[in-house]
Amino acid sequence: MWLGPEEVLVANALWVTERANPFFVLQRRRGHGKGGGLTGLLVGTLDVVLDSSARVAPYRILHQTQDSQVYWTVACGSSRKEITKHWEWLENNLLQTLSVFDNEEDITTFVKGKIHGIIAEENKNLQPQGDEDPGKFKEAELKMRKQFGMPEGEKLVNYYSCSYWKGRVPRQGWLYLTVNHLCFYSFLLGKEVSLVVQWVDVTRLEKNATLLFPESIRVDTRDQELFFSMFLNIGETFKLMEQLANLAMRQLLDNEGFLEDKALPRPSRPQRNVSALKRDLDARAKNEYYRAMFRLPRDERLDGHTGCTLWTPFNKLHIPGQMFISSNYICFASKEEDACHLIIPLRE
Q1: Would the CA dihedral through 166, 45, 235, 137 be positive or negative?
Q2: CA angle 129-265-295, nearest 5°?
Q3: CA–CA separation, 47 vs 51, rounded Å?
Q4: How far apart are CA 42 and CA 219, in angstroms?
Q5: How far is the C-alpha of 83 from the C-alpha of 75, rounded, in Å?
Q6: Do 302 and 313 touch, CB atoms closer than 8 A?
Q7: Is 127-254 a CATH 2.30.29.30 domain?
Q8: pLDDT band at 331 (very low <50, low <70, confident <90, very high)
Q9: What's this model's pTM, rounded to 2 decimal places?
Q10: Which of 175, 186, 297, 327 could form a disulfide with 193 if both were Cys (CB 3.0 to 4.6 A apart)?
Q11: Which residues form the GRAM domain (predicted)?
Q12: Local structure of 99: helix, strand or coil
């Protein structure tokens, strides 16, 4: 896979050089392949804990000029066959052209421009229009599919660093929440833990804290009890897990599949580390809350809300609250629960 060129200051830590020419270096991750030994266990553990892409793509190609100490990543690969294909393309198409340049800065500028051009061409052909998922999510989705054997249609909603408690021992790893599954992967010094749970199999989901476990999320299925803890934001994670489990139950009852909301407006400013699918689910949760609060029809969509006050003539007061605007209604809810609710159909 071609990568947007990024600087690499220490090129040989944890990597072994397998091929080199005056402008490019092909490297393999230490410990990958046969005979990994202790190095393979240590490097594998490090890759999982730090969420390194090297576990999925243990081969890479770097660009470097002779007098420069800075390397630039230009490609990575999950297999020797994939990375060799990229290496041969660079040798056949760029080596002769690069040897003509006199200035090393011009060489690097040309290489970066060429790689960006290849990526732009691939994205134009492969990505759907309006895809807002940042590169980090695509990388995580690739890891998830490869690690758990998920099909192309399985969409990643979000992923979190956490610990899974196996007995009394916490296993540090990564929790992946997809539309249909909860997945967890950990690799610590040769001990591997891989879990896949379908949302439709979840019978209980709760957030709790006990003497044995710190603040944690408990997931029960028909066969087992799972405990996850040490989240950076346990509230956000639990809320998303609850929403996905409820969504799976509703789909089971309605006999319908999950469909993305194609009419969801684009954000006014890019949201870092938030996928389009996560925004879709957040919008659904807000819509459901709005419809339940004012008992509105199922197809009513919330356009937005803002803080305001409502003048009530009967007691001559300004009541603070929130105004909600949707497809067919303007609604108001006071901050004090049940103090005042107002529903105005737009047709009136």
Answers
A1: negative
A2: 140
A3: 6
A4: 30
A5: 8
A6: no
A7: yes
A8: very high
A9: 0.53
A10: 186
A11: 142-209, 288-348
A12: coil
